[in-house]
Amino acid sequence: MEAPDFQDRLGVRAANILGRAGFAEWSNLCRVSPGELQELPGAGWRTVEEILAAVAREWALAYLRRWETGGAKKEVEEEVHGLVPLASAFEEIERISGFEVFELRHLQMGPPPTFRSLAEKAAVSRNAVAVKPARIDQAIAQRMRSETWPLRIAVDYLQDRLGALARPSEFDDLIAALNRDVGGLSGRMSQRRALLLHIAEYRESDDWILGPDIEKLTATVIDALSGEGSSDVDLVGRHLSRLGIREHLQLPWLASQFGYRIIDGGLVPLNDLI
Rounded to whole angstroms, how far apart are CA atoms 39 and 32? Predict the structure, then answer.
Protein backbone atom coordinates (compact mmCIF):
# COMPACT_ATOMS: atom_id res chain seq x y z
CA MET A 1 0.00 0.00 0.00
CA GLU A 2 2.89 2.36 0.71
CA ALA A 3 4.88 1.55 -2.43
CA PRO A 4 4.89 3.83 -5.49
CA ASP A 5 3.50 2.71 -8.84
CA PHE A 6 5.49 -0.21 -10.18
CA GLN A 7 6.23 1.75 -13.35
CA ASP A 8 8.62 3.86 -11.25
CA ARG A 9 10.64 0.77 -10.26
CA LEU A 10 10.61 -1.34 -13.44
CA GLY A 11 12.05 -1.01 -16.90
CA VAL A 12 9.80 -0.10 -19.79
CA ARG A 13 9.43 -3.67 -21.05
CA ALA A 14 8.45 -5.16 -17.68
CA ALA A 15 6.05 -2.31 -16.90
CA ASN A 16 4.39 -2.63 -20.30
CA ILE A 17 3.94 -6.40 -19.93
CA LEU A 18 2.25 -5.96 -16.55
CA GLY A 19 0.13 -3.07 -17.82
CA ARG A 20 -1.15 -5.06 -20.79
CA ALA A 21 -2.03 -7.93 -18.44
CA GLY A 22 -4.17 -5.65 -16.29
CA PHE A 23 -1.82 -5.18 -13.32
CA ALA A 24 -2.32 -1.58 -12.23
CA GLU A 25 -0.55 -1.59 -8.84
CA TRP A 26 1.65 -3.70 -6.58
CA SER A 27 -1.29 -5.24 -4.72
CA ASN A 28 -2.38 -6.95 -7.97
CA LEU A 29 0.78 -9.07 -7.77
CA CYS A 30 0.18 -10.41 -4.24
CA ARG A 31 -1.33 -13.74 -5.33
CA VAL A 32 0.63 -14.22 -8.56
CA SER A 33 3.32 -16.88 -8.71
CA PRO A 34 6.58 -16.60 -10.71
CA GLY A 35 5.24 -19.32 -13.01
CA GLU A 36 2.14 -17.28 -13.73
CA LEU A 37 4.26 -14.22 -14.42
CA GLN A 38 6.34 -16.15 -16.93
CA GLU A 39 3.18 -17.14 -18.79
CA LEU A 40 2.35 -13.47 -19.47
CA PRO A 41 2.79 -12.60 -23.17
CA GLY A 42 6.35 -11.41 -23.77
CA ALA A 43 7.61 -12.20 -20.26
CA GLY A 44 10.89 -14.13 -20.32
CA TRP A 45 12.88 -15.21 -17.28
CA ARG A 46 14.82 -11.93 -17.13
CA THR A 47 11.56 -9.97 -16.95
CA VAL A 48 10.25 -12.25 -14.20
CA GLU A 49 13.48 -11.81 -12.24
CA GLU A 50 13.25 -8.03 -12.59
CA ILE A 51 9.65 -7.98 -11.34
CA LEU A 52 10.37 -10.29 -8.39
CA ALA A 53 13.45 -8.27 -7.40
CA ALA A 54 11.45 -5.04 -7.46
CA VAL A 55 8.64 -6.57 -5.41
CA ALA A 56 11.09 -7.89 -2.81
CA ARG A 57 12.92 -4.57 -2.62
CA GLU A 58 9.73 -2.54 -2.14
CA TRP A 59 8.41 -4.99 0.45
CA ALA A 60 11.67 -4.83 2.40
CA LEU A 61 11.77 -1.03 2.36
CA ALA A 62 8.14 -0.79 3.47
CA TYR A 63 8.89 -3.24 6.31
CA LEU A 64 11.91 -1.25 7.44
CA ARG A 65 10.08 2.06 7.31
CA ARG A 66 7.36 0.69 9.55
CA TRP A 67 9.27 -1.50 12.01
CA GLU A 68 12.96 -0.66 11.90
CA THR A 69 14.83 2.39 13.13
CA GLY A 70 18.45 3.43 13.24
CA GLY A 71 21.42 2.13 11.29
CA ALA A 72 19.90 -0.93 9.55
CA LYS A 73 17.06 1.05 8.03
CA LYS A 74 19.36 3.87 6.94
CA GLU A 75 21.87 1.46 5.39
CA VAL A 76 19.28 -0.39 3.29
CA GLU A 77 17.59 2.78 2.08
CA GLU A 78 20.93 4.27 1.08
CA GLU A 79 21.83 1.05 -0.73
CA VAL A 80 18.72 1.18 -2.90
CA HIS A 81 17.77 4.83 -3.13
CA GLY A 82 20.59 6.81 -1.55
CA LEU A 83 22.65 7.61 -4.63
CA VAL A 84 22.68 11.30 -5.42
CA PRO A 85 20.88 12.08 -8.72
CA LEU A 86 23.32 11.69 -11.58
CA ALA A 87 21.86 14.01 -14.22
CA SER A 88 23.54 17.19 -12.97
CA ALA A 89 26.93 15.46 -12.66
CA PHE A 90 26.74 14.12 -16.21
CA GLU A 91 25.67 17.51 -17.52
CA GLU A 92 28.54 19.21 -15.70
CA ILE A 93 31.08 17.05 -17.54
CA GLU A 94 29.24 17.28 -20.87
CA ARG A 95 29.33 21.10 -20.72
CA ILE A 96 33.13 21.26 -20.51
CA SER A 97 34.67 22.62 -23.69
CA GLY A 98 35.98 19.79 -25.82
CA PHE A 99 33.60 17.11 -24.58
CA GLU A 100 32.47 16.44 -28.16
CA VAL A 101 36.00 15.37 -29.12
CA PHE A 102 36.36 13.33 -25.93
CA GLU A 103 33.09 11.55 -26.73
CA LEU A 104 34.14 10.73 -30.28
CA ARG A 105 37.52 9.45 -29.14
CA HIS A 106 36.51 7.48 -26.03
CA LEU A 107 32.76 6.85 -25.86
CA GLN A 108 31.81 5.67 -29.34
CA MET A 109 31.71 2.12 -30.64
CA GLY A 110 34.33 1.13 -33.20
CA PRO A 111 37.72 2.63 -34.00
CA PRO A 112 38.07 6.23 -32.77
CA PRO A 113 38.56 8.98 -35.37
CA THR A 114 42.07 10.36 -35.68
CA PHE A 115 42.96 13.78 -34.32
CA ARG A 116 43.88 14.80 -37.86
CA SER A 117 40.42 14.00 -39.23
CA LEU A 118 38.73 15.80 -36.33
CA ALA A 119 40.97 18.83 -36.82
CA GLU A 120 40.22 18.98 -40.53
CA LYS A 121 36.51 18.76 -39.87
CA ALA A 122 36.65 21.59 -37.30
CA ALA A 123 39.15 23.65 -39.37
CA VAL A 124 41.59 23.91 -36.48
CA SER A 125 45.07 22.60 -35.79
CA ARG A 126 45.67 19.01 -34.74
CA ASN A 127 47.17 20.16 -31.42
CA ALA A 128 44.08 22.24 -30.66
CA VAL A 129 41.97 19.07 -30.94
CA ALA A 130 44.40 16.72 -29.21
CA VAL A 131 44.41 18.58 -25.89
CA LYS A 132 40.64 18.40 -25.45
CA PRO A 133 40.22 14.75 -24.33
CA ALA A 134 43.03 15.20 -21.81
CA ARG A 135 41.21 18.24 -20.41
CA ILE A 136 38.09 16.16 -19.79
CA ASP A 137 40.07 13.35 -18.16
CA GLN A 138 41.76 15.88 -15.87
CA ALA A 139 38.41 17.35 -14.86
CA ILE A 140 37.04 13.86 -14.11
CA ALA A 141 40.15 12.89 -12.12
CA GLN A 142 39.84 16.06 -10.03
CA ARG A 143 36.18 15.47 -9.25
CA MET A 144 36.78 11.79 -8.46
CA ARG A 145 38.78 12.88 -5.42
CA SER A 146 35.49 13.86 -3.79
CA GLU A 147 33.68 10.92 -2.19
CA THR A 148 30.39 12.82 -2.51
CA TRP A 149 30.57 13.44 -6.28
CA PRO A 150 27.58 11.57 -7.76
CA LEU A 151 29.62 9.89 -10.50
CA ARG A 152 32.22 8.77 -7.93
CA ILE A 153 29.39 7.21 -5.90
CA ALA A 154 27.96 5.54 -9.01
CA VAL A 155 31.37 4.19 -10.07
CA ASP A 156 32.03 2.79 -6.57
CA TYR A 157 28.56 1.19 -6.68
CA LEU A 158 29.37 -0.51 -10.00
CA GLN A 159 32.88 -1.63 -9.03
CA ASP A 160 31.70 -3.12 -5.74
CA ARG A 161 29.22 -5.31 -7.61
CA LEU A 162 31.12 -6.16 -10.77
CA GLY A 163 34.61 -6.72 -9.40
CA ALA A 164 37.39 -7.15 -11.92
CA LEU A 165 35.24 -8.98 -14.48
CA ALA A 166 31.58 -9.09 -15.48
CA ARG A 167 29.20 -10.01 -18.23
CA PRO A 168 27.79 -7.10 -20.28
CA SER A 169 24.28 -8.15 -19.21
CA GLU A 170 25.27 -7.71 -15.54
CA PHE A 171 26.55 -4.22 -16.25
CA ASP A 172 23.39 -3.35 -18.19
CA ASP A 173 21.22 -4.58 -15.30
CA LEU A 174 23.09 -2.34 -12.84
CA ILE A 175 22.83 0.63 -15.21
CA ALA A 176 19.08 0.04 -15.51
CA ALA A 177 18.78 -0.13 -11.71
CA LEU A 178 20.72 3.13 -11.34
CA ASN A 179 18.50 4.83 -13.87
CA ARG A 180 15.34 3.62 -12.14
CA ASP A 181 16.51 4.69 -8.68
CA VAL A 182 18.27 8.00 -9.32
CA GLY A 183 17.77 8.83 -13.02
CA GLY A 184 20.23 10.71 -15.19
CA LEU A 185 20.92 7.99 -17.74
CA SER A 186 17.85 7.80 -19.93
CA GLY A 187 18.46 10.94 -21.99
CA ARG A 188 21.85 9.85 -23.34
CA MET A 189 21.90 6.23 -22.18
CA SER A 190 24.57 4.80 -24.49
CA GLN A 191 27.00 7.73 -24.09
CA ARG A 192 26.59 7.97 -20.33
CA ARG A 193 26.84 4.22 -19.98
CA ALA A 194 30.12 4.44 -21.92
CA LEU A 195 31.27 7.34 -19.73
CA LEU A 196 30.72 5.30 -16.56
CA LEU A 197 32.73 2.46 -18.13
CA HIS A 198 35.52 4.90 -18.95
CA ILE A 199 35.62 6.45 -15.47
CA ALA A 200 35.55 3.02 -13.81
CA GLU A 201 38.41 1.94 -16.12
CA TYR A 202 36.47 -0.97 -17.58
CA ARG A 203 36.70 -2.12 -21.19
CA GLU A 204 33.90 -3.90 -23.02
CA SER A 205 34.22 -6.80 -25.44
CA ASP A 206 31.49 -8.91 -26.98
CA ASP A 207 31.47 -11.27 -23.99
CA TRP A 208 33.03 -9.39 -21.08
CA ILE A 209 33.35 -6.20 -19.10
CA LEU A 210 37.07 -6.18 -18.32
CA GLY A 211 38.77 -4.46 -15.41
CA PRO A 212 42.25 -2.92 -15.66
CA ASP A 213 44.91 -5.46 -16.73
CA ILE A 214 42.72 -8.44 -15.79
CA GLU A 215 43.79 -10.34 -18.92
CA LYS A 216 47.50 -9.91 -18.15
CA LEU A 217 46.99 -10.70 -14.47
CA THR A 218 45.07 -13.86 -15.32
CA ALA A 219 47.78 -14.99 -17.73
CA THR A 220 50.40 -14.39 -15.04
CA VAL A 221 48.49 -16.52 -12.52
CA ILE A 222 48.02 -19.35 -15.02
CA ASP A 223 51.68 -19.29 -16.06
CA ALA A 224 52.85 -19.31 -12.44
CA LEU A 225 50.62 -22.24 -11.46
CA SER A 226 50.86 -24.38 -14.57
CA GLY A 227 54.60 -24.34 -15.17
CA GLU A 228 55.20 -26.96 -17.82
CA GLY A 229 51.93 -28.80 -17.38
CA SER A 230 48.29 -28.50 -16.33
CA SER A 231 47.02 -26.78 -13.20
CA ASP A 232 44.07 -27.48 -10.92
CA VAL A 233 41.08 -25.30 -11.81
CA ASP A 234 40.05 -24.89 -8.16
CA LEU A 235 43.52 -23.67 -7.25
CA VAL A 236 43.54 -21.21 -10.13
CA GLY A 237 40.07 -20.08 -9.07
CA ARG A 238 41.24 -19.20 -5.57
CA HIS A 239 43.87 -16.91 -7.07
CA LEU A 240 41.32 -15.39 -9.45
CA SER A 241 39.16 -14.56 -6.42
CA ARG A 242 42.04 -12.50 -5.05
CA LEU A 243 42.09 -10.61 -8.34
CA GLY A 244 38.44 -9.70 -7.86
CA ILE A 245 36.88 -12.24 -10.25
CA ARG A 246 33.63 -13.55 -8.78
CA GLU A 247 33.25 -17.31 -8.41
CA HIS A 248 30.41 -17.83 -10.90
CA LEU A 249 32.54 -16.29 -13.68
CA GLN A 250 35.81 -18.09 -13.00
CA LEU A 251 35.09 -21.24 -14.99
CA PRO A 252 33.76 -19.50 -18.14
CA TRP A 253 36.62 -17.00 -17.92
CA LEU A 254 39.21 -19.79 -17.75
CA ALA A 255 37.46 -21.62 -20.59
CA SER A 256 37.87 -18.51 -22.74
CA GLN A 257 41.65 -18.28 -22.25
CA PHE A 258 43.54 -18.75 -25.48
CA GLY A 259 45.82 -21.78 -25.60
CA TYR A 260 44.15 -23.74 -22.80
CA ARG A 261 41.34 -26.24 -22.36
CA ILE A 262 39.60 -27.46 -19.19
CA ILE A 263 39.75 -31.27 -18.90
CA ASP A 264 38.81 -33.30 -15.79
CA GLY A 265 39.16 -30.33 -13.44
CA GLY A 266 42.50 -29.26 -14.84
CA LEU A 267 43.52 -26.31 -17.02
CA VAL A 268 45.59 -27.99 -19.72
CA PRO A 269 47.79 -26.19 -22.28
CA LEU A 270 46.79 -27.13 -25.82
CA ASN A 271 50.41 -28.02 -26.55
CA ASP A 272 50.07 -30.93 -24.12
CA LEU A 273 47.17 -32.31 -26.17
CA ILE A 274 49.07 -32.43 -29.44
Answer: 11
Closest by CA to 107, choosing from 1, 171, 196, 40, is: 196
Instruction: Give the closest residue to 202 by CA, choosing from 107, 111, 112, 134.
Output: 107
User: Which of 10, 5, 8 minimizes the C-alpha distance to 48?
Assistant: 10
In this prediction, the residues of the chain whose per-residue pLDDT falls under 70 are 1-9, 61-84, 186-187, 227-230, 271-274
DSSP the chain: --S--GGGTS-HHHHHHHHHTT--SGGGGTT--HHHHHTSTT--HHHHHHHHHHHHHHHHHHHHHHH--SHHHHHHHHHHH-SPPSHHHHHHHHTSTTHHHHHHHHSSSSSPPPHHHHHHHHTS-HHHHHHHHHHHHHHHHHHTT-TT-HHHHHHHHHHHHHTTEE-HHHHHHHHHHHHHHH--SSTTHHHHHHHHHHHTT-EE-SS-EE-TTHHHHHHHHHHHHHTTS-EEHHHHHHHHHHTT--HHHHHHHHHTSTTEEEETTEEEEGGGG-
The angle formed by the CA atoms of residues 15, 17 and 20, to the nearest 5 degrees, is: 105
Question: Distance between CA 148 and CA 142 in Å, rounded?
Answer: 13
| Under 8 Å between Cβ of 4 and 81 | no
- pTM score: 0.64
